[in-house]
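Inverse folding, one chain.
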């Protein structure tokens, strides 16, 4: 017997979307999973979900996706790590079409709650100029100077969610994700983020016997990395909360990229020579999540230690590289979900 009404997840073929569908099904929700990619290209695809391939830049496709849904998790976006968003600013901004059309359709359908996946890329760049960065509070998004392209789309879409709530009464919830990582996500091809990229490079070094890797930048830039299980738990908690303003959803464990590499070397059991490439995409110098608000409002914050999450991520990537498997699992491989 399913719980509550139908839940729509857009971007369901992607990394975070796939994990969210899995969790919702596990908790016995009825799920419609939508992505623009064919299901054979989804990281996870579950037979028990109502899986649909739709281009949500089209408003009619959004109307079909939203039809009958009580809740919408809008994760669909054309995005990736720094290697992608620095060189695809227009493509990233076109994601504004999907959120705008999804909001229109959700309002028309009378959806009960609408979650929008925003990003730490909305934060003002002048607050992220030092490696020893002060953790970002939600108010640090203004005065606005977000990441070019992608960050502006995310910030604009946050405000669309706010005004659809204020003017039309649609209950919207917004979380700003801080560099989410974990298994069942991309680790090669250009859209990968640093955790998966470093796992791939070290795993390849181990498998090839060539113990050297390229590192983008000088390795002293800092980030916090959020394990996928924390992201999913926080996403579902924020959806059901009374938190009406955008809120950080991120780890507060700040590390340099060199320290990230140290962690992966220790997991892999090898050490690698590091070739630093200062001309590679770098993004901001430092970024960390201030979790004061989420602790106050939810009595919780992401706590999975980087070492724990990276062990799971590295093992998954190493296994794929060593067996030559693709990273996508598609409909055939995804684990069956007990109802
Ligand atoms: N992707 C990647 N690949 N990054 C590397 C690599 C590598 O091989 N080697 C070092 N880095 C460095 C990058 O130069 C950057 O300074 C840092 O790791 C993190 O890069 P990233 O994971 O690609 O992306 P960012 O954290 O800079 O930005 C991402 O933030 C997310 C939200 O926190 C965005 O690309 C979005 O994925 C998202 O908004």
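Residues assigned per position:
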């Amino acid at each position: 017997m399913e719980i509550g009404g139908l839940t729509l997840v857009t971007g369901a073929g992607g990394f975070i979307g796939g994990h969210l569908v899995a969790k919702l099904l596990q908790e016995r929700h009825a799920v419609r999973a939508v992505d623009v990619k064919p299901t054979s290209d989804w990281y996870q695809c579950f037979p028990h979900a109502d899986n649909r391939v739709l281009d949500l830049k089209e408003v009619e496709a959004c109307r079909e996706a939203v039809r009958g849904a009580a809740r919408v998790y809008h994760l669909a976006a054309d995005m990736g790590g720094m290697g992608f968003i620095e060189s695809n600013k227009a493509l990233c901004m076109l994601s504004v079409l999907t959120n705008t059309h999804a909001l229109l359709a959700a309002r028309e359908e009378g959806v009960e709650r609408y979650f929008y996946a925003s990003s730490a890329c909305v934060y003002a760049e002048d607050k992220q100029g030092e490696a020893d960065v002060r953790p970002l509070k939600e108010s640090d998004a203004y005065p606005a100077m977000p990441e070019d392209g992608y960050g502006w789309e995310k910030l604009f879409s946050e405000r669309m969610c706010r005004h659809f709530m204020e003017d039309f009464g649609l209950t919207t919830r917004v979380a700003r994700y801080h560099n989410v990582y974990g298994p069942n996500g991309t680790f090669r091809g250009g859209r990968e983020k640093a955790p998966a990229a470093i796992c791939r490079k070290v795993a390849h070094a181990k498998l090839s016997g060539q113990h050297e890797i390229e590192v983008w930048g000088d390795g002293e830039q800092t980030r916090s990395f959020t394990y996928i299980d924390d992201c999913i738990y926080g996403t579902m908690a924020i959806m059901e909360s009374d938190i009406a303003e955008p809120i950080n959803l991120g780890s507060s464990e700040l590390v340099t990229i060199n320290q990230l590499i140290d962690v992966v070397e220790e997991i892999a059991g090898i050490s690698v020579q590091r070739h630093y490439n200062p001309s590679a995409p770098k993004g901001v110098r430092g970024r960390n999540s201030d979790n004061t608000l989420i602790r106050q409002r939810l009595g919780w914050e992401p706590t999975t230690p980087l070492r724990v999450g990276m062990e799971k991520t590295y093992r998954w990537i190493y296994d794929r590289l060593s067996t030559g498997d693709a990273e996508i699992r598609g409909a055939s491989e995804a684990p069956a979900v007990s109802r």
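The CA atoms of residues 227 and 304 lie 6 Å apart. Residues 79, 81-83, 85, 119-121, 177-179, 192-194, 197, 215-217, 221, 223, 257, 280-283 surround guanosine 5'-diphosphate-beta-L-gulose (CB under 6 Å).
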